[in-house]
Every structure is written in C-alpha cells, then in structure tokens.
Amino acid sequence: MKIAICDDREDDRGALKALLEAYGQDFEIREYGSGESLCKDMDYIRECGIVFLDINMDGMDGLEVARQIKSECPKVHIVLVTAYVNYALDGYKVKASRFLLKDDLEQTLQECMDDILREILQEERVMEFGFVEGNVRLKVDDIIYIETNKHKNVFYTQEQTFNIYKKMDELEEDLKEMGFVRIHQSFLINMKYIERISSYVMVLTTGKEISVPKSRYSEVKRQYTLFKGVE
Amino acid sequence: MERWIISFCIIAIEVWGAVYFFDIFMERKRKGWLDKGRYMILYLATVLVALLDMYQDTMVIKVLVAVLELMAFCAVFYKAELKQCIFFSMLNYSLLFLTDIFSLLIENILNSKDELYALENPFWLVPMKMVRVFLLIVLRWIWKGKNSYGALSYKEWRKFGMVPVFTFVSMLVMYFCYSGEKKVQAAYLFLSAGLIAMNFLVMVLMQDILEKGELLRESALTDQKKESQLSHYRDMQALYERQGRKMHDYKNQIRTIQVLLKEGDTQAAAGLAERLTESIFVEMSAVNTNHAVVNAVLNQKFHVARGQGISMIFRVGDMSGMRLDGEETVILLSNLLDNAIHECVKVAGLGRKAVINIKLVEEGGKLIFSVKNPVAKKVQVADSIVLDSGGGMHGVGLMNVKAVVDKYGGDFAISCDQEKFQAVVML
After folding, report:
1. β-bridge partners, B423
2. Tens of pLDDT along B347-406?
3. Which residue range forms the structural domain that includes residue A55?
4. B315 to chain A, minimum CA–CA distance in Å?
5. How far apart are CA A17 and CA A20, in angstroms?
6. Residue A229 and residue B413: Cβ atoms within 8 Å?
7. A19, pLDDT greater than 80
8. Same domain, yes or no, for A139 and A224?
C-alpha cells in the first residue's frame, strides 16, 4: 500500500515513518515537506491508501490540503496529526478518518492503522459468486441487499441484479462480519445502505422499505447501532 | 365414552389454566404462527402424557413427566431462564394438584367416601376445575409485578424454590397416606388449603422483593445522576483552577519575554513565545466540539486518561446542535468514558497498550457516540447491560446511560469480545 506523510518538520516525518515501517507491513512511503509539494503530486495521492497530514504547517496548512485531497480523491483515508487537540473538530469537517496527537503516536498509531486497514479491506473486498448469469466478481460494498425470490436469492446492487441458487443461510455465513444483517428469513441487508430503522420498518438509502419482524427487531437495531459506532 | 369426553374437556380447562398462569409471570417469545398454536400444542402434549400415564403406575413418575412437559413448554414459548421454567412449572402443577385434592376432599367429606380419586358423578370434575380458574384470577389480581426477575439472586430463587418442592412432597404424602377417616380427611383439607395459601404468599413475597429491588435501583440511579452532576461541576472547577494556575504562569512567562526583548535577545524571546503558544493549546484548549459541556467532560477525561498513560483517538464533530441537556450529556459521556478509562487502567497494568477510540459525531440527523476500548478480560453482556460473575447486573452507570437513551427513543448497544469492548449510543 502507498502512504504519504506531509509535515514541515523533518524530525516528525522521520518519527512517523519509523513507526509505520515498524508496523510490520510492506508500505511504500513518500515524504513531503509542505502542503504545496503534496498537492503537486496528486497522481501519487490518488494511488495512496492513507495520507498523514500535519495540521500546522507554514503556507498551506493541513486542513486546506485535506480539503483539496478529499475533493479530488474522496476515497483516500486522511489522518490528521497534530500537537493540538483543539483541531479535532476542524479535522472532522474535512472528513478526516482519524485525529492523532503527535506526542502520543507510539501508543495510538497501531490502533489507528488496524482500524483503517480493516476499513480499506472492507471497501475493497471482492467475492466471486456463481450467479445464474455467470461467475461474477462483486465488490461486497456494492451489494445493497439480498432477497429471496421463490427458490433463488437475488443480489441487488447499484447497477443491476444477479440471481443465485444458494441458500440464504449459506450467503449469510459467506458475508459474515462484512457489515450484513439478516433482518428476515428472506432478507440480508448491507448495513452501509440503511437510512433508518423505526416502527418495525427499515428504510434503505435507495428508498426501499422493508418490514422487520418483531422477533428480530431489537437484535437488528443492536447490530445496526454497533455498526454505526465503528463506521 | 362420556369419561373420554369429560377427560378431554378437563384437559382443555387445565391447559387453558396453565397458559394463563405462565402468561401472568413470564414474557412470551412471540414466535408468530407457533405462538398462536401454543394452546393446541400444549393440549396435544398433555393428552399424550395422559395417555402414557395409563401405562404408568408410579405417581411420582407421572408427576415428574407432567412437570417436565410444562418446563419444555415454558422453554419453547417464554423468555425464561431454566430456574424460572422449573419454578413456575412446579408452582403451576402444585396449584393444579392442590385444588384437585381440595375439591375432591370436600366432595369426599360431604359424601362420606373412603377413596380420594373417585367422584360420585364424573361431571362434577368440570365445576371442580372452576376452583382453580378462580384461584388463577385471584393470582392475576395479586400479581402486579413486571415479568423481570433480574433482581432475584440465585440464592433467593433457591429459597423460593423450596416452597413448591415442599408442596410436592406434601401432596405425594397426602396421596399415598390417604385414609377414609373423617379426622384425616379434615386434616388433609386444612393442609391443602394451607399449602395453596402458602404458595400464594410466596408470590406476594416475590413481588415485594422485586418492587423493593426496583426502588433500590431507582434510588441508586438517582444517586448516580447526582454524582454525575457533581462530577461535572468538579470537572469545571478543576478546569478553572488549572486555567488560573496557568494564567499566573503565563504572566511570568510574558514578563520574561518582555525582558528578553528589551535586552535585544529576540531569538530566545521567539523560542519562549513559541513554546508558550504550544503549551497554551495543549493545556488549555482541549477537545473542541462547539459545545461547552461536551468540551468540559471530554477535556477532563482526556487529561485524566493521559495522566494514567491512556491514549485517546478522536473522531468528533460539531455538537452545537445537540438536544441533550447538560445533566444528560454528563451522564452519557462520563459513564461511558469512566468505564473505558477504568478498564484501560487494568489493561495498562497487564503491560498492554491502552487506547480509547472515541467517536462523537452527527450523521444523517442522528447523534452517534461510540467508545471502544481494550479489555483485560471479556465480560458478559446482555440486553445493553454488563453482567457480573453471578449473572446479575454489574454497576448502574450503563443503566443511567440507557435511561437517557430511552428518554429520547434512541438506541444503545454494547458488545464485548476477548479484546475489545464497545458501547454505542445513537440518538
């Protein structure tokens, strides 16, 4: 994975790089001494998984850089690193993934990397399914929900639907811990696409409404709440 | 033929009585179509048990089979633990048996008979069953308690369980030692009435204990709320005191900078000014969420955590639109963060890294507050509470959080595995 570090202090860049190298994975790490130099290398940024940005830099500060990166590469994870906790709020405004304190990096970096890598893995996870339409490699995140229709199960994605002759229980097992919740014998929902759950009805971001049985309602809400906590 | 018809009618009344009895004390699982057929299912099971009893002579085994049948019914159709299934099945059966004995004894005394189990006219069995129906209605009227027995400890269940066990033993003694003598019949009549009354008394006592437990919990919650509020004011006080000390310090630092500038040592003055600026931000400007109370609590907990070598990773947003009042905010944040810090101290003591992940944001119109922390040991969780080793509720902090969440119709969920504990509030 490609990582970028942007900090106007060489010592701080070096310290962060050392911690990332000690994390134990094979990263390609590039360092930048200013926001301007980082923004000039957008081609590399587009290929990056994570960008570490110091907020307080002379010239273009980290928040401004973060805004620019997010506008051009919305999927890149930005981690704001600073000595000042005060910027946590501003960090969220630029949709930074995390906010770390410089003097605490040894403690917090591993935890932060574990979480972000898990998120990246989740976003990029691809599974192959033997659909009626043929073998298709689907990004798990693209599956909105799966519904049973007579003797087969139908995968609903943003673009199209796919049919598969496989039991819902097996599909639930295959997609375990990937953010799916079984709300009904006939429905397996990707929680990323849930808009809200209330009064025994689940509304998806696509506008679809699905009834949630009373017997499963509290468990579905519980799983969704926990999902929103880590999302 | 008429005996068969009467038997089926009697079983129908007994089954109705059993289901009515269990509905008084336990919450149904609501299994859809299976739930609607529970009367029929219990009826068929009872008919089967009755038919099997025709080939069984030992009374004790007949009683045991009947109780096991009721226990299985409770386990399938009600949200009840094993001890509750056992207790209420035994209680139900003992009331059934006792009312039958009571009614038969009355009939025996009136008709001067020697045998307990033979009626002059079998049709009298049907109105006899009305005695039990009447008792069930009285029980329903007495039992106003909620069907939540978490407040009862295992010891208390054991003590209450002695009553139906004693009742069973007494019933079997009466059955096996029956005599046609008037005095014995009268004594057994008195004994059966007394046992019925004793079983009712057990239910009244249980209800009292549950009510008192509820009052104690509410009292503990109120105390905890007051403590949270006091804690908040102490946090504010601590913050003002720290700011006051720092202000005093900074005055001295600024005087030093003035002196350096007068002496022309601009480099030293600039260095001191830079260090001073950093210090001000780190010490005084804590987490900023645009909400004074949230800032006060997060700031205080952040410093407390740092003081104990615990780190925090933040994802916070603009809380200026939060609709909770100050007290509720303190309850929510303080309880969850205190639990996380408390657990992290244990984790740090084991030589592991202790990092708390905090997410406090507004997404899609909902406030999401999530705290994730490592655990020294996995804890049991059930229905948004943490259980202690005995299966009872551990602490009242999470109950307070739940109370706030319930007030706003929100959701509260907790989970724990071998490594991490997570608590999420969504309002």
Report:
1. B371, B414
2. 988 888 888 999 988 888 889 999 999 998 888 777 666 665 555 555 567 878 888 898
3. 2-124
4. 6
5. 5
6. yes
7. yes
8. yes
